[in-house]
Every structure is written in C-alpha cells, then in structure tokens.
Amino acid sequence: MKIRSKISFPTLLSLIVVAIGIITSVTAGVVMMGYANMNQTTAGVHFRLRARTFIVAESSQGPRFAFVNLDAGMASQLVNIKVLEKLKSRFGNLYTEENVAISGIHTHAGPGGYLQYWLYSFSTLGFVQESFDVIVNAIVHSIVQAHINLKPGSIFINKGDVVNAGINRSPSAYLLNPAEERAQYPANIDTLMTLLKFVDGASEQSIGAFSWFATHGTSMSKDNKLISGDNKGAAARFFEDQFATTPIRAPFNSFNTPDVGKLVTKAQTIKATGGHTCSKTSSKECKVRKNDGSLFVGAFCQSNVGDVTPNVLGAFCTDTGRPCDFNLSSCNGNDLLCLGRGPGYPDEIRSTKIRGETISEGG
C-alpha cells in the first residue's frame, strides 16, 4: 500500500470480536441478502460471519463512540433499534443512536430476512426472526465485551492506495461524467484505503485495526449457497490469523482436489492454542471467537463502493464466453447473461481468497 499520510493521538479504547451465532436453521433454507435471487438459499457455511466492534471513549463513563463492522449485506433501522434497546437496559443512556454506528461489509452471501422494509423482505420471502435475532445478539454481545475491556491506548491513522483490488463495473457510465471532473482523479475508481490502528497503552502492542476500502462483496456469485463474508470477511480472517498465537492460516475450501497427505502432515505440526472442548449441546458462546481484550481484531469496512467490483478480469457472456457489450453490459440484450469474473475464475472461492489476501495485505 502506497502511504499518503499518518497521524496519531492518545485515547481510551477497546476492541472486541465475536462470531455471529450461526445455527442450523439459519444455515439451511434461508434466502441470501444481496443479489435478490430467490433461488439463492443458504446450504452450508464457507466461513463464519462476525461482528467486530471498537469503542473510543474520553473516560470509563464519559463520552464515547462505538462502531460495529458487521459481516452482513448491510445494517438496518430495525437492527439498530433493537440493539439500542438491549444496550439501554444494561447501560442506561451511555449508548444511543448518537454514538453507535453499525455498518455492513456488503457481502452478498449472508442470510437475509432481517430487514423490516418490504422491498428487502420480498426477495427473502419475508421476515426471518431467527436470522434477525442472531445478528442483533451478536452485535450486542460484541459491544458489551468491548465496553468491559475499555482501557487506555493510542490510535494511529494511515492512508494509502490499494491497487489491483477492483475495477469499475460500468466504465461506459463513468465516461459520461464531464471530462474536467474525470481529470481530477487518477483512475475511474477510488483506490484509497483508510486505516485506524489501535495500540494498547500499557504493552504498546497492536490490538486491532479497522480499515475502510471500496469494493463490492461479490467475489461469491449469485449461484453460491455457502454463507460467507466474501472478500472483506476473508481479509479480516487472514489479518487476524497473522496475529494469532499460532499464526497458522486455516485452509480455504476450494473446488480443487487437495493433497490429503500433505494436509495431514501439516495438521500434525499445529499445536493446540488453548481452546476448550465444545459438544453438540454446548452453548453458542462456546462456539464463537470470543475476546477478553488480548486477541487482535482486524476489520475491513465498506466505504464508497459505488461501481467498484472485485471481479477484475471483466464481464463476460455466459452463453458465448465473449466480453459483454461495453455500453449496455448485456449479451444480445440480456443483462442476466453478463457476469463478472474474479481473479480465480472459474473458482469463485479461490477468487474470494485471492481478493481477500490483496485487501488484507494492502495491495
């Protein structure tokens, strides 16, 4: 990443990460939120979704700001209302609509049915209470844990450009902007990444980083049925793995046949990281990545995504294999046949991995 600027300032801060409580009834048969494709129903998990929170406060009970980065298509007004209701019952007026922000990473591979408006509920075949509840509860749990772990620290801000992570999915439309306006920018997409780094005041160790970068969560296609945080969720997972006690990157599922012998040999070299046994009857708290303030938290948040697509090979017609019409983004008049190709085409899981690594490593 090419650095543009860097500043820092001391403050009280805390970060926390907790997995969204995905359970069987949500991972099977729920229409996904993003592509408005009623046939895209959940049928398994690519990797678990999470809610990551940071809180910045002037003092332990003073003014503060809480930001939640949610592995979902977007947040919703109803989610915000219910989260704030639960926080008020525990903390009074410490957390309100004025100092709590909930932002989705815009993955198109998460369970739908948690938005209250008809336009969004239509494609998911109605409101899904269980989908809604696990999202609300995960956000609240994340904020509560962040609140408990509030401690002195410093924040550093950095900005830089990440290249090769996206292209403009509608370049012909961009060319309709006035030439003098286009001349103000070096590219037809925004390549700027802004990163906040959080450092523990006592140990001076990095305890987290939240970054904002523009690219759609569409490395996983409209035909995918596995719940996934897509490229930004993958980037967060990779980034956090780098700071784990045993920095072993968990393998991604892929359509390619793995060498089982090599995987077994590698697995035998991995030492236990101090977890505890979970059974089928264990509580959901046992099955999530909890944080007592000692684990690094990495979040890749969505920004001005606009027409930025991670499918950098361009758009092609599924019937002919030829590039889509440049001006109409269609194939003989049918825009449904025009689909983007990611860097790992035709393996979209590999594309998600590649794009997640690019974002995680800052280009």
From TrEMBL:
Keyword Membrane set for record: yes
Protein's name according to its UniProt entry: Neutral ceramidase
Catalytic activity: an N-acylsphing-4-enine + H2O = sphing-4-enine + a fatty acid
Class of the enzyme per the UniProt entry, highest EC level: hydrolase
Any one GO CC term of the record: membrane
Cofactor requirement: Zn(2+)
Cofactor note: Binds 1 zinc ion per subunit.
